[in-house]
Write a sequence for this structure.
């Protein structure tokens, strides 16, 4: 393996270390935030924002999505679209109830 | 007959076949867990205001936080096992893979302790809708950990012989099993706050 590749891998290792440290810190922040005096809606919003940041770090760097081929990205965007539809189903049920009530 | 595109990228997709296969599998996994996350939202909206938060007070946050740290660490050791192969360091690969397996085992032991405490306090999936979805989500996630451990153990033990004959294909195998493992970590990153903290 060439020295150029070695330098490249060493840079990758540094990035993985930084991602790992960020995930550990954000985990502590998530737990700390749950003890704040916030409304239910604010707590849910904050926890999901932190979880989304952590999830993005894992997907982008550990799963290499940041440098992945467009074909894979398109498959995942399609999946994400269906995932959000699935999340919307419970809310749609409540819209239906509001119309009846 | 040689199986095509185990190492080389397929011209039309730009990735080797196994990687595309695993990403498609993970897409189906997103929908599997998505359905259960959707059920969680549905049950939470259907319960009395504050009921889910109150029922969740019985859960052990310090143990769950420790488990989160353990899974994050396992993701780190997993990616380092792949990096080790990229650097042609097979001994380090074995070490990092063993550490990943150890983290997974610790996660399961802690989960067992949590489940035992719940059962000891007569808390079951039938206790209320919160524990129904708690046991379903964490149980399914735990099964994914066990499934992953079986594959990791094979690739750490007998499956690692492939390194001597087909090192590039073996490195790719570690990359795609890593994708699965990181996904399992990613699911827990969302399970932890919604079940334990909210």
């Amino acid at each position: 393996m060439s020295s150029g590749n070695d330098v490249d891998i060493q840079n990758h290792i540094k990035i993985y270390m930084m991602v790992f440290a960020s995930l550990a810190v954000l985990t502590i922040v998530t737990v700390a935030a749950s003890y704040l005096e916030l409304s239910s809606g604010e707590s849910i919003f904050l926890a999901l924002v932190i979880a989304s940041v952590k999830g993005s770090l894992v997907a982008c760097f550990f799963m290499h999505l940041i440098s992945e081929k467009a074909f894979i990205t398109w498959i995942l965007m399609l999946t994400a679209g269906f995932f959000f539809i699935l999340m919307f189903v419970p809310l749609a049920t409540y819209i239906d109830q509001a119309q009846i009530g | 007959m040689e199986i095509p595109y185990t190492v080389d990228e397929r011209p039309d997709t730009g990735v080797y076949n196994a990687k595309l296969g695993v990403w498609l599998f993970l897409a189906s996994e997103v929908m599997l867990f998505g359905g259960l996350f959707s059920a969680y939202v549905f049950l939470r909206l259907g319960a009395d205001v504050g009921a889910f938060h109150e029922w969740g007070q019985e859960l052990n946050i310090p143990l769950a936080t420790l488990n989160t740290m353990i899974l994050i660490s396992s993701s780190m050791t997993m990616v380092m096992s792949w990096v080790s192969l990229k650097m042609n360091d097979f001994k380090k690969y074995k070490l990092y893979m063993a550490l990943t397996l150890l983290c997974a085992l610790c996660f399961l032991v802690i989960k067992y302790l949590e489940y035992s405490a719940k059962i000891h306090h007569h808390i079951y999936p039938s206790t209320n809708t919160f524990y129904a979805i708690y046991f379903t989500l964490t149980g399914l996630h735990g099964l994914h950990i066990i499934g992953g451990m079986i594959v990791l153990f094979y690739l750490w033990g007998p499956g690692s012989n492939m390194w001597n004959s087909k090192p590039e294909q073996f490195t790719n195998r570690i990359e795609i099993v890593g994708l699965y493992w990181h996904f399992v970590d990613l699911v827990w990153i969302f399970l932890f706050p919604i079940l334990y903290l909210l």
